[in-house]
Amino acid sequence: MQNISWEFDCISLLVPNESIARFSVEQGSGFLRSLNLQVARALKSSGIEAVHDLRVALRRFRQVLKMLKPWLPDQESRLLRRELKNLMGRAGDVRDLDIALHLLRAIQVPKNRRIIGELHETRETLARALHECLRDFQLRDTGAAWRRALKLEKSVEAPAASDVARHILSPMLKRHLQRGRRAARENTPAKALHRFRIETKEMRYTLDLFSPLYGGTIVEITARLKSLQTHLGAIHDCVATRDLVDDARSSAGKKDILRALENRRERKTERFLRDYRRDFGNEEVLHRWKKALRHP
Prior knowledge:
- The radius of gyration is 21 Å and the shape is flat.
- The chain is mainly α and 296 residues long.
- The chain has a single domain (20-293), classed as CHAD domain, CATH 1.40.20.10.
- It contains ten helices and no strands.
- The protein has helices at 20-44, 48-67, 74-107, 113-140, 142-152, 161-183, 190-210, 219-247, 254-280, 283-293.
């Protein structure tokens, strides 16, 4: 079997020894349906929750295309990956501004109204661009061509989905723990923490992808990853907001805002370090997780 590096959440097979080819069709179709629902929702409203849920659906389906690549239609998947990358960029820009506006209102620095107004205008412009991008994506309906191609895919001697899950998830967890130990050191650069945040998302979403094969045996791992993702996201929010404020034309209150954001980032980093060592530093717990992933 191809040696592919992947990151997800686990699943439990409803059919014993189901082939990875059939599993790929079922999971791919399900995650695409979820994405299409979020695209339709975001077209009706580009509010904070709709954009957030859209980004999650995009990441999850992109992870499906990545992890199950050998058993999915190649040409159609390439076209979809290109379109999804563009959507992710557009939605990410809007999401960063949503977070920035939320933080700026929360820290309540005097004289920050001009910067808030400036960022709000930028957000509205980017939301319109996202809407156009989503409308084009829906009109092209590349996903429909991908689904048709799925029905024509013929996979000879495809391995069992449980064997693939075991082959992917155990090494993935090992890599994630190694990178986590490096990230959980004092004074880790923001870029390194951001990379670990992305890896954590991919690990969690890969577990989600394969979760039907595992039932409830991986719930604890998923919960810990979700908490870790929250901590790393809070740090990244401060960094992304700082960059947006730094680039703002208005200078009113800027120094105070940047100082408040840095203080917040330091607090969030301290909490991440404390909780990571607590949640991922117990060898007995880690052994239990590794054992669970070896037995879908």
